[in-house]
Amino acid sequence: MSSWFPPEASVQAAAMDRAFSGIWFGAVLALVVLVGLAVTFVIQFRRRDPSARGAAAGPVDRRLQVIWVLGAMILAVTAFAADLGGFFGQTVPPLGATEVDVVARQDGWTFHHPGGYVADTLHVTAGENVVLKLRSDDLPHSFTVPALRINQGVLPDRTTRTWFMADRVDTFAVRSNTHGTAPTALITHTPDSYARWQDSVSDLFATMDPVEVGAHLYLKLGCKTCHSLDGSRLTGPSLQDVFGGTFESRTGAMNLVDEAFVRESLLDPAASVRAGYEPVMTVFAGRIDDREIDAIIAWLKTISTFVESAADDAEVEG
Amino acid sequence: MTSTSYLDSGGWINTSDHKKIGLMFLVWTLGLFLFGALLATFLKLKIWQGGVDLTLLRQMQTYHGVAMVFLVVIPIIPSVLGYFLLPLQLGAREMALPALSRCSLRFYGLGTVLVLASLFTAPVASGWTFARPDLLGGGSFVVLAAGLALMALSWVMTGLNFIVTVHRLRAPGLGYLDLPVLTWSLYLTSYVLVVSGMVFGGGIVAVALASLRGQALLGGQTFPLLWQQIFWFATTPAAFFALVPAAGVITEVIAGMSRRPVIGYRGLVGSLATLVVASFLIWGVRLADSGQGAMATFTFAVLSLLVVIPVALITFSWLATLWRGAVLCAAPTTLVVAFLVSAGIGTVLGLFLSNLSVGRFLAGTMFATAHIHYVMLGGVITALLAGVHFWWPKFTGRTYHQGWARGSAVLYLVGLNVAFFPQIMMGTRGLGRGLVDPAPGLEGLQIISTVGMVVLLLGFVFMAFNLVRSLVLGETAAANPWGATTLEWEAASPPVAGNFAVLPRGRGPYEG
């Protein structure tokens, strides 16, 4: 059924395509029989004499009726049951599969890969079983990869799962059936190229200055999911004008957001939580190193007017 | 009893004559159908020209869906053919509750005005299922929801009126198993209209109130699918199973055009009743790709198999009635064939969606869009057109040009398939439902589909023009031009104000 679907890229896709082909054959047969008989009868029994009447009502031919109904049932039950194993297989991920946490938002996707590698595209090794744990941070979306025949709903505050094993190295389009959700991509690697991708993700400092790395980490680590940059309230406080400012914690203490505080917030976020917010922030201890924390601090300084005004004051005093 | 035609008797504005109410519903619903079809065609042409603004796209899709499903597909057969024909088929002079008929029309009218008014303020862009609370559009959604709630009340009134009329106003000697199949289908659909109307009307008001309170989702984050469950519970029986009254219409047309009693009458009526019951059990089939649990999806899919036996029995009866009939090859027959082709495709597309593996992939794609259009347009609207052509002489006392009617019916069928078959192929390629950014290689299908839409619209306009033309140029129709046998054909064409000069006595179904 290559003319109907994109080329298959998984074992599941091949099984689904076979089921589709079987149903297609039955559906065309049923339609041809129904419409063919109706058109034949209209022509064969057309009214030649304006006063002609059809045959009087007679008993229903039970034998033909049973055959007709049985034929329809066989078609429908076969269509229903084709690749039923594939459906249930899809609901039970294989043991030992690689798990990727996926967060959908209207403005993009965040994929939390094993080992703390976070990206806005999904990276896996071809031939490896991958389980996706999906949730939405705003509205219902769907995670749809036509080549893998995956179409999984993604809901707010509920984790849905799907799994797959891509059978070749390639880049596949990932869409959502919801308007306005940014598209993304599934990139399948060889083990070597996957390792190279990990290196490229982790060694950001080779190509960027610390401020750029900080901005990149904000996206890559999924900070944007909970912290806006425009002052608007999300799950967590906005990062606009946060560095250099002070705030009241849930315990009533006043805290200054300096370098030490940012470091503590990333490694042990529960230590001090701003009043009015829940202690739900992800712990980044073990997931980012000192150099990356410094980069985040450097970037936070660039988006805070407190830092600019402090610098201005210093200039005036100087 | 007066011998004046109902068309020349009394006014229209305050009338409670069921026939005039049916005709007013015909003009109103077909006008809205044209509005919805023009929206879709305009949208397709904009896409063809090189894209369309995303907000405008969402708004047009929303109003296309709302107009077609809630203002046209759900009410059209009961409101048009039901109001006109039910008392006539029962051998009665009026509906049991004439004031309620008038009220139903007025609620419908006011409802459509509010729905359209919301279009001219800040159009809602959340899609016709209102599954995107962020795009409801604030105040204008409240206006739209009020319009839809009035619409739902209109369904409830129509349903109650039909039920009481069938219970109380059957001609002497007309038992339940003597009722024509159309009357049975309308009677059964009345229960759907009452239940779905109340659930949908209540639900949409709740969503409007929630949006006024600033609540993002009805049911909050705890029950994110609550609204979708309510929505599909109400609309699956009312919209998708609008095929039940459509089957009633097709049965009458087949029996009338072949001058033969319906073969397998009891099985057919039992099948329609089974379909109505089943329609309330399978709403979750529409939620296969929503994140609903696998066992729920499996259970709904198994339950959906309940519809297979009734559908098989109904189609068997149709074929058995045509067999050895004296089939008149006129426009209603052409439209019956058009119905069998397009509703047949809609039904077999349902087979793909019922498969859990294939269906889960296709559910969110243009494949599902094609399915909806084949069922609602190819099934319900085609049946309505067949019915209008069949009963037009009874409605107006005029005959229309057969060549024009058959030609425009063929054009309509060709356009319908050229418009929607490409969507099946776009769906299998993974193009999302209602999306307009076809993946590379699908642009050609999008263009073919657009051309089909224009052809479909032309077929519909020619058909309407031919019927309107008959009012001026058509020959006077005989009381029973097809030689059909149900009681409405004993009335004059057009009927007198009280339907019958002498009330007929009941007789077995299709005994002429």
List the helices and strands and how they pair.
The complex is a heterodimer of chains A (318) and B (512).
Chain A: H1 11-44, H2 62-81, H3 84-91, E1 98-105, E2 108-112, E3 118-119, E4 122-125, E5 130-136, E6 141-145, E7 150-154, E8 160-164, E9 171-174, E10 184-189, H4 191-202, H5 210-220, E11 246-248, E12 254-256, H6 259-267, H7 290-302, H8 305-317
Parallel strand pairs in A: 1-5, 4-10
Antiparallel strand pairs in A: 1-2, 2-3, 5-8, 6-7, 9-10, 11-12
Helix pairs in contact in A: 1-2, 5-7
Chain B: H1 18-48, H2 54-90, H3 98-119, H4 139-168, H5 181-212, H6 226-239, H7 243-258, H8 265-279, H9 294-304, H10 308-322, H11 331-354, H12 356-362, H13 366-396, H14 402-428, H15 443-473
Helix pairs in contact in B: 1-2, 1-3, 1-15, 2-3, 2-4, 2-5, 2-13, 3-4, 4-5, 5-6, 5-7, 5-8, 7-10, 7-11, 7-13, 8-10, 11-13, 11-14, 13-14, 14-15
Describe this structure in words.
- The complex is a heterodimer of chains A (318) and B (512).
- By secondary structure, chain A is an alpha+beta fold.
- In chain A, 38% of the residues lie in helices and 18% in strands.
- A five-stranded mixed sheet of chain A has the order 3-2-1-5-8, with no helix packed on it. Chain A has a three-stranded mixed sheet with strand order 4-10-9.
- The relative contact order of chain A is 0.09.
- Chain B has 512 residues and is mostly helical.
- Chain B has a domain at 17-242: Cytochrome C Oxidase, Chain A (Up-down Bundle).
- Chain B has helices at residues 18-48, 54-90, 98-119, 139-168, 181-212, 226-239, 243-258, 265-279, 294-304, 308-322, 331-354, 356-362, 366-396, 402-428, 443-473.
- The radius of gyration of chain B is 22 Å and the shape is globular.
- The model of chain B has no long low-confidence stretch (mean pLDDT 90).
- At the A-B interface, α1, α2, α3, β6 and β7 of A face α2, α9, α10, α11 and α12 of B.
